[in-house]
């Protein structure tokens, strides 16, 4: 075995110089002070600091106050094609029906000012074609976009958060093509467009929100009236499901409250309900042309609750059967007694 | 070692004297970027050098390559400094002088090398573009009733792949549709040899690039020359090829696991792109939080652009990607040790083309007498096909990169049409016994995997194949695991299986409905499938217009978890999402008792209430097994409604109800 060479031991106790002591001591103190400062700055004393339910309800109120005041104009307008009454002649085009309804409300200029960025929110929820009436009629969307531009809008954006594959929904609903043709900007619900907001509703507290739909000067809700197996009938108020991201499948456990919560959060400038072709059963997705009825009707209103309360009669429903209408009424979002508004049928 | 002082003040890098580091040294020499030839033996044969320059040449001796005994030991290094180095006054920029005879390679070849590089970049870019476009993005230009199709033939590289064709021809005795294009590649090989490997193959280009990016210090100079000589391990790819082709004869397209195009689509499509999206999305998401309009705008537009051109509108997740990406990184990293390790050693498509390359009309002619054994041809040889003098060129290994001819200072190597073949080995260098053993292994693979997990004895409930998939046996005969279907699926529903369908089914597509469901009107997976494992069905066939709809499984309720059944809570999201018309999910209206959770004021039992509920049921005759119900079920972890493969219309035996069997239907 090899013997280790003897190591000469130096005196182990060597006192550091005063300078070294100061430098090392100072460095240690610096690290401590830095850690303390960082720790104090990000200290979450109560725990769950991020999730603490502080802050007010974020309401997106796009209503135009003057729209209700001028009494010579209607608050709820129903435009029907003559076909609904007399068969034989071709029905009025959706564009004409939308124009008629908006004229009754005093014209789009009352809702859209020059230079506004207007967001149009149709229902593009399902991978269905226009004939299935599960999505808003593309001609109605195009009409709203065009009339908004005529009223002086700077940009008109069309967007929705779909249930099925969004690319497919936007293309096959026909809305992408028709809206693009009249200059609308179509925004698909890509992941980065969602930001968590505080709704502070009874069931909806914090939820990812489609920012394109809430960052605007004016918002026009353009739902389609249709049957819904759980909620029985849906149009304007339920259409706000499209602003939600995340896993919204939980909301069905309390669908009426969540609809009311959403309608409390989103207060549109204008609601245009598409009832050109109405899905009368197997809603909300449909898929069978036999389940649809041509009604050639457009309901425009400044009151989304009243619009729903009226439109549900189209498929033989009654407002008393729709709890979310009652909730909306009680919360003061609008009135379920649409007869009390200034109604105009054209 | 030569001390610098002996050379009269000329600065002499000490390392220059070390022969093994020579190559490294002259890379660092500023005045002379060109490699200096290694010379055999005495210093007198050192190439004439410009005596006005001040750089120092160490000469490196490499023994004449002996074909029989390759190996690292054959590099014997002796350090020889050039004997006469004048004490030059000033190094002035000199015209680059070529080593050796000084005759540059033919202009046509030098041009062709650049054409080859351009071709590699072009085809790699094309491959990536096709991969990015392997997703339906929609367009404003389409009518509502325009069938949803991809505008580009995104599977083109697979269609041109003769190995895929050969495998599926052997297993199915037919050439599926677009696969006939692969004859074109075969024709190209018969004229030019393995140009596909060196000029076109995107996976080969990736290896070419990483071989350039990753060489270690050991991977330069003599060691690199040694690595680029032909080695016996290059036979491995032929054995793999034989095994895969014989497995094809016995009914399995498992060779797709090793096909380079399949690997590229699978690992980049399912791994690299989603990972890039994950990282890029986080980074750009962070940037959009910066309180500056400009930064936010740029981040937003970048996200928009990337989401509509490179990746998907939402993050995709794939089972098995960890393994798929790990293997990609492993073969790319192998380039550090053996340049183009994948192409030389493992690639069955390269081997397949190598078999045909022997008939190529274009090839190499060598004038061994002129060779000075400088080995420059080997420095950048891609195929390790023995371009150097004294040995025979291996035609089946050559990637036709033309680097050897460009590098040759003595004009020994010439590529031309119809060369003489005196110095050429055309046949693969395989041993008969090993080849037979490999073929035997291929033959045995199928029974070995099937007796372990027989397909129709033990149906796996989760082996849910894409719509249009052929019956399982035929499916395994055709599926090459290229992952095109998984990449194109708009809902992220298709995933590479692991062992769900046995060893044989590794990385074949299965639908995991919890992650994504089968979009009702979508037939894109069949459109991109290059081999017909998923047939090109139309929307009408899938939806069942005028024919029976395509069923991929059947949904079942777990009443113990379903909210209206077990917790007296309204729900029926499943019914809402059920896409069939009439709906396969129907609801039963009931009034059920439910307990109020709050106890009474005096501690008595909580009161009972009655709630109106809609309890869902499946109509098995209408259910197509798309999995939309399972995807949206709010019982998050283990769904209350789920699909299994039973009732799939492609199988005659995996059925529940007698009326669903298609014994009497023509198939």
Automatic annotation (TrEMBL), chain A:
The keyword Transmembrane helix applies. Keywords: Membrane, Transmembrane, Transmembrane helix. Pfam families: DUF362 (PF04015). The keyword Transmembrane applies. Residues 118-312 form the DUF362 domain. It comes from the Bacteria. The chain crosses the membrane at residues 21-43. This is DUF362 domain-containing protein.
TrEMBL record, chain B:
The chain crosses the membrane at residues 114-132, 179-210, 239-258, 316-334, 341-364. InterPro entries: 4Fe4S_Fe-S-bd, 4Fe4S_Fe_S_CS, Electron_Trans/Redox. Residues 389-418, 470-499, 508-540, 614-644 form the 4Fe-4S ferredoxin-type domain. The keyword Cell cycle does not apply. Gene3D superfamilies: 3.30.70.20. Keywords: 4Fe-4S, Electron transport, Iron, Iron-sulfur, Membrane, Metal-binding, Transmembrane, Transmembrane helix, Transport. PANTHER family: FERREDOXIN-TYPE PROTEIN NAPH. This is 4Fe-4S binding protein.
């Amino acid at each position: 075995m090899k013997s280790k060479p003897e190591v000469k031991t130096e005196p182990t106790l060597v006192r550091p110089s005063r300078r070294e002591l100061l430098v090392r001591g100072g460095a240690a103190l610096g690290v401590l002070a830095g850690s303390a400062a960082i720790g104090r700055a990000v200290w979450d004393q109560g725990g769950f600091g991020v999730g603490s339910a502080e802050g007010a309800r974020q309401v997106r109120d796009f209503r135009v106050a003057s729209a209700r005041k001028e009494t010579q104009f209607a608050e709820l307008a129903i435009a029907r094609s003559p076909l609904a009454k007399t068969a034989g002649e071709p029905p009025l085009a959706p564009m004409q029906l939308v124009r008629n309804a908006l004229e009754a409300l005093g014209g789009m200029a009352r809702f859209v000012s020059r230079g506004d960025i207007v967001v149009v929110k149709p229902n593009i929820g399902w991978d269905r074609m226009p004939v299935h009436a599960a999505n808003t009629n593309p001609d109605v969307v195009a009409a709203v976009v065009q009339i908004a531009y005529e009223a002086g809008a700077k940009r008109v954006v069309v967007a929705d958060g779909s249930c099925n594959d969004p690319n497919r929904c936007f293309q096959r609903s026909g809305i992408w093509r028709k809206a693009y043709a009249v200059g609308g900007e179509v925004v698909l619900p890509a992941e980065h467009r969602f930001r968590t907001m505080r709704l502070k509703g009874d069931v909806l507290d914090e939820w990812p929100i489609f920012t394109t739909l809430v960052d605007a000067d004016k918002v026009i809700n353009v739902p389609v009236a249709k049957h819904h197996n759980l909620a029985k009938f849906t149009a304007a108020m339920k259409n706000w499901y499209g602003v939600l991201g995340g896993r919204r499948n939980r909301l069905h456990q309390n669908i009426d409250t969540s609809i009311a919560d959403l309608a409390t959060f989103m207060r549109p400038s204008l609601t245009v309900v598409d009832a050109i072709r109405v899905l009368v059963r197997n809603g909300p997705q449909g898929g069978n042309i036999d389940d649809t009825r041509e009604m050639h009707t457009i309901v425009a209103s400044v009151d989304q609750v009243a619009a729903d309360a009226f439109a549900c009669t189209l498929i033989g429903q009654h407002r008393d059967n729709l709890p979310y209408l009652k909730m909306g009424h009680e919360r003061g979002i609008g009135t379920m007694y649409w007869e009390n508004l200034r109604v105009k049928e054209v | 070692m030569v001390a610098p002082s002996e050379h009269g003040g000329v600065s002499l890098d000490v390392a220059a004297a070390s022969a093994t580091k020579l190559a490294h040294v002259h890379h660092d020499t500023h005045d002379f970027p060109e490699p200096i030839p290694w010379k055999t033996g005495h210093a007198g044969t050192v190439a004439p050098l410009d005596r006005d320059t001040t750089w120092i040449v160490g000469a490196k001796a490499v023994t004449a390559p002996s074909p029989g005994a390759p190996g690292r030991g054959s590099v014997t290094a002796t350090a020889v400094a050039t004997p006469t180095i004048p004490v030059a006054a000033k190094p002035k920029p000199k015209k680059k002088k070529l080593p050796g005879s000084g005759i540059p390679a033919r202009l046509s070849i030098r041009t062709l090398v650049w054409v080859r590089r351009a071709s590699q970049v072009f085809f790699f870019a094309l491959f990536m573009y096709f991969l990015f476009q392997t997703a339906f993005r929609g367009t404003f230009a389409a009518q509502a009733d325009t069938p949803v199709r991809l505008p580009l033939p995104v599977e083109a590289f697979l269609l041109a792949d003769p190995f895929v064709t050969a495998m599926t021809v052997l297993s199915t005795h037919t050439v599926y549709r677009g696969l006939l294009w692969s004859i074109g590649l075969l024709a190209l090989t018969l004229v030019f040899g393995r140009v596909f490997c060196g000029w076109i193959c995107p996976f080969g280009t990736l290896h070419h690039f990483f071989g350039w990016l990753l060489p270690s210090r050991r991977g330069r100079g003599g060691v690199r020359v040694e690595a680029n000589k032909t080695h016996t391990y290059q036979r491995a790819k032929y054995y793999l090829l034989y095994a895969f082709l014989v497995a094809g004869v016995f009914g399995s397209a498992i060779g797709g696991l090793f096909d380079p195009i399949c690997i590229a689509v699978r690992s980049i499509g399912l791994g690299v792109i989603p990972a890039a999206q994950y990282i890029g999305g986080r980074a750009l998401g962070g940037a959009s939080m910066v309180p500056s309009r400009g930064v936010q705008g740029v981040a937003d537009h970048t996200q928009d652009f990337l989401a509509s051109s490179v990746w998907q509108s939402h993050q995709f997740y794939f089972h098995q990607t960890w393994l798929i990406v790990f293997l990609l990184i492993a073969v790319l990293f192998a380039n550090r040790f053996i340049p183009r390790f994948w192409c030389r050693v493992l690639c069955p498509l390269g081997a397949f083309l190598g078999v045909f390359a022997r008939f190529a009309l274009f090839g190499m002619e060598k004038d061994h007498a002129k060779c000075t054994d400088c080995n420059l041809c080997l420095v950048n040889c891609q195929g390790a096909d023995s371009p150097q003098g004294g040995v025979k060129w291996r035609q089946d290994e050559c990637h036709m990169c033309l680097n050897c001819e460009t590098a040759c200072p003595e004009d020994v190597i010439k590529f031309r049409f119809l060369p003489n073949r005196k110095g050429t080995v055309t046949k693969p260098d395989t041993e008969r016994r090993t080849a037979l053993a490999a073929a035997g292994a291929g033959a045995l693979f199928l029974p070995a995997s099937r007796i372990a997990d027989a397909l129709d004895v033990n149906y796996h409930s989760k082996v849910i194949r894409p719509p249009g998939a052929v019956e399982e046996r035929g499916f395994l005969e055709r599926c090459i695991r290229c992952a095109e279907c998984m990449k194109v699926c708009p809902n992220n529903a298709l995933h590479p299986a692991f062992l769900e369908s046995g060893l044989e089914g590794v990385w074949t597509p299965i639908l995991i409905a919890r992650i994504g469901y089968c979009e009702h009107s979508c037939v894109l997976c069949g459109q991109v499938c290059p081999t017909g494992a998923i047939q090109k069905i139309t929307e009408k066939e899938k939806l069942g217009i005028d024919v029976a709809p395509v069923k991929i499984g059947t949904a079942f309720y777990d009443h113990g978890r379903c909210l209206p059944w077990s917790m007296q809570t309204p729900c029926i999201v499943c019914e809402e999402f059920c896409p069939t018309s009439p709906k396969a999910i129907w609801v039963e209206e009931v009034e059920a008792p439910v307990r109020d959770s709050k106890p009474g004021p005096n501690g008595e039992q909580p009161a009972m209430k009655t709630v109106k509920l809609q309890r869902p049921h499946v109509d098995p005759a209408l259910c197509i097994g798309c999995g939309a119900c399972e995807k949206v079920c709010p019982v998050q972890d283990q769904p209350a409604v789920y699909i299994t493969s039973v009732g799939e219309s492609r199988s005659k035996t995996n059925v529940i109800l007698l009326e669903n069997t298609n014994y009497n239907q023509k198939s």
